[in-house]
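Morning!

This is the sequence you dropped in the shared folder:
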Amino acid sequence: MNLPRLNLATLPTPIEALPNISATLGGIQLLVKRDDLTGLGGGGNKVRKLEFLTAEAQANGARMLVTTGAAQSNHCRQTAAAAARLGLECRLVLVKPEGGSSGGNLLLDSLFGVGITWCDKTSRDDTLRRVFDETWQDGRRPFLIPYGGSSPTGAAAYFHAFEEMLSQGVSPDVIVFASSSGGTQAGLALGAAAHGNRTRVLGISVDEPAPVLKETASRLAREAASRMRLAVELSSEDILVDDSYIGPGYGVLTSLERDAIRLFARREGLLLDPVYTGRAAGGLLDLARKGYFKQGEQVLFWHTGGTPALFASQYVNSLA
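The structure's back. Tokens below.
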């Protein structure tokens, strides 16, 4: 069953070869799925989810979108852009980082005209609920979008994204991407399972331990399958996660991300971000060099966007 959906993204996003990096790795064919080019508000994977989530919001009579994330959240930036496109108010609950942050996604949030409530990480969920309750009591009809847009409805978007990839004539041996809140991974894994596809869907965790992320993604996949009336049942054992590259923590730039960002920029003219795609690409490169991928395999790097974070104050000097 198809879920209600609005047209917010520029689709289909292209799939491109990365011949120069493929040559440096040797033995694999590396492709990239350009979900950094989904268009709205600077693009990124969350626009796909927001096509379904905002349709759900409208069906519930919403006049405001409320969501949460880190200070440089790509999801929050894209939610703000979707609200602007649809004529809705938007309130963001953002976790204030140590040392502060400016520029990047925060600049775009401001341009989209959102209201921001700051909190610390330990109080994020309580603050989100408080903001939602306050705006509801004020009669502003808020619609709550979870962290990362990762609800069963949001996950369904990446089931359709998997189908989009197949319609482009690509069925890779492995898909590699950044995984955090689990929705993108849930949808891709569900797409592979529903189509009987043997593609390995490998999430490089940017922050969560593998057992936690596997459980979250499998639950979202099961709930999305139920909503779409798909006879597919996924367990946590069906979800592939590598949490070896979390390093010192979420959003902390290390040589892994820095080297990957520079390699993709200098060899392919392709921009990655410091938090998600930089970490996932660094993991992919390391796995390739360790022989994780078989000789001749086609590996698709699913670029989930995030380029504005390159221009955040805490990253500029480290990447210059």
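Headline: The two ends are 48 Å apart (CA to CA).

More detail when I'm at my desk.
O.
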